[in-house]
Write a structure and sequence with these properties.
- The strands form 3 sheets. A 5-stranded antiparallel sheet has the order 2-1-5-4-3. It has a 4-stranded antiparallel sheet with strand order 7-8-6-11, sandwiched between helices.
- The chain has 14 helices and 11 strands.
- Helix 1 runs antiparallel to helix 2.
- The protein is an alpha+beta fold.
- It starts with a helix and ends in an 11-residue tail after the last helix.
């Protein structure tokens, strides 16, 4: 077989192998095979046409151009290096007279074969480019369909926002949550979707996110078309192009309005239950357990820092007589009236509670004995001038009070219970002295 036919046969074999490699392996593998096979054919044509000075040495240029068009930059560089090495080797063999006799020359048939080869390679390039473009278009179309399906079918709200903070596009879920049609939101300034007092924080969040991060989900209030508020838990990411230029913001959020309302209801219920657990039902003051907790806390402060404290015990005189004479409703009213007097005359940071029945206790933080006596005198005067109406009659309240302090002149108490007991003793001493407020010193 002549050299011309061998050259043509080699080109046809390369074409077949290229298409098979594309179908059986991958597009990238077929590209590299095609470029390498073309290079082999070009070098072979140069060798059998007389070497570097032969008529077909120019075929290398076409191979390099094709490789640059089809393959990667790395493959092109490698082909260029191999071409340089091959040319040096052929030049050496040519100058040494070691090349075979030229069997391809500039005759008509050679030119025809070369032209055919060039046409074939060009056609292959065009076909390959078209196929590649179709493949890319199909791939992009499939990706677009997948993205669109994910975008539209998501039950979460999806927002695409421009760098100048306008809505580019939203999915159906976002439009439904906000009460808009999707086209109504397109181009709308993001500022209109947030409460005015929250927008500065939202804008700051948008301005601080970078391409390398996705901000973790945060709860955010949105304003619907009707002016109502909904709460979404949204994340935030910045999408950039291959040059790092911002393209758009992307945010995905779920509607948690009902969840937040339920959490708020639970907190309110818990707060109400906690308040009820620590409150006396009749007077609204602290109950026995709650006021004793504050007494223990102030005692710990006294033991730790040496800050004085006092305890005041208050007892309503004659509650049983009021109940027997006027009824329990009047007795309850008398207890509530006394609680109001004590509440109005205590210091803002004192703790007042009802121990039960007709007995009350005040915890006086930071109060030495003299301070506690002044408070007792003020409260005793206010309480014993208070009257309540019972139909046509009036009932005057009378009380007995006693105090005990960590700063007594006698022996200091060793525990809060001992301090409470001393105040209780002072109370009953006062009752025996016909409501004269006294404090019993302890030695």
């Amino acid at each position: 077989m002549s050299a011309e036919l061998n050259l043509l046969f080699g080109i046809l074999v390369l074409e077949v192998l290229t298409w098979l490699a594309w179908r059986l392996r991958s597009l990238n593998f077929a590209t590299n095979l095609f470029c390498f096979g073309s290079w082999i054919i070009a070098i072979s044509a140069m060798v059998f046409s007389g070497g570097i000075s032969g008529s077909l040495a120019i075929a290398q240029v076409y191979v390099l151009l094709i490789t640059a068009l089809l393959a990667s930059q790395r493959t092109t560089v490698n082909t260029l290096i191999l071409t340089g090495i091959a040319n040096l080797a052929v030049f050496y063999l040519e100058t040494a007279g070691l090349l075979p006799a030229a069997s391809l020359d500039a005759s008509l048939i050679v030119h025809m074969i070369v032209s055919l080869a060039i046409i074939t390679l060009t056609a292959a390039t065009i076909i390959y480019s078209n196929q590649t473009q179709q493949h890319l278009v199909q791939h992009l179309s499939e990706n677009e369909r997948k993205f669109r399906a994910l975008f539209e079918k998501s039950t979460d709200a999806v927002f695409l926002l421009s760098p100048n903070l306008r809505v580019i596009e939203v999915n159906s879920a976002a439009a439904t949550i906000l009460g808009y049609a999707p086209e109504e939101l397109t181009g709308l300034p993001m500022k209109k979707l947030f409460p005015a007092d929250e927008w500065p924080e939202v804008r700051q969040r948008l301005q601080t996110v970078t391409a390398s991060q996705m901000l973790r989900p945060t709860r955010r209030s949105f304003v619907t078309k009707s002016g109502d508020k909904v709460i979404l838990e949204t994340n935030l990411a910045l999408v950039v192009d291959e040059r790092g230029k911002p393209m758009h913001y992307q945010s995905i959020g779920g509607d948690i309005t009902n969840t937040v309302l339920e959490e708020q209801r639970m907190r309110n219920t818990l707060a109400h239950m906690t308040l009820r657990a620590s409150t006396d039902a009749l007077t609204g003051l602290l109950n026995r357990e709650a006021v004793m907790q504050h007494a223990h806390a102030e005692w710990e402060r006294y033991a730790r820092e040496g800050v004085p404290m006092s305890i005041m015990m208050v007892d309503m005189d004659g509650l049983k007589k009021i109940n027997d004479t006027h009824g329990h409703l009047v007795g309850d009213a008398a207890l509530k009236a006394l609680a109001k007097v004590l509440e109005n005359n205590k210091r803002p940071y004192d703790w007042l509670g009802r121990l039960g029945g007709d007995e009350f206790m005040l915890v006086l933080p930071g109060a030495a004995l003299d301070d506690a006596q002044r408070i007792l005198s003020r409260m005793h005067q206010a309480a014993n001038t208070k009257t309540i109406r019972t139909g046509m009659d009036e009932v005057r309240l009378t009380t007995s009070m006693g105090i005990a302090s960590t700063e007594d002149n006698g022996t200091a108490p060793r525990a809060i219970n001992e301090l409470v007991e001393r105040a209780d003793q002072a109370l009953y001493a006062a009752k025996r002295r016909v409501n004269t407020p006294v404090a019993i010193p302890h030695e």
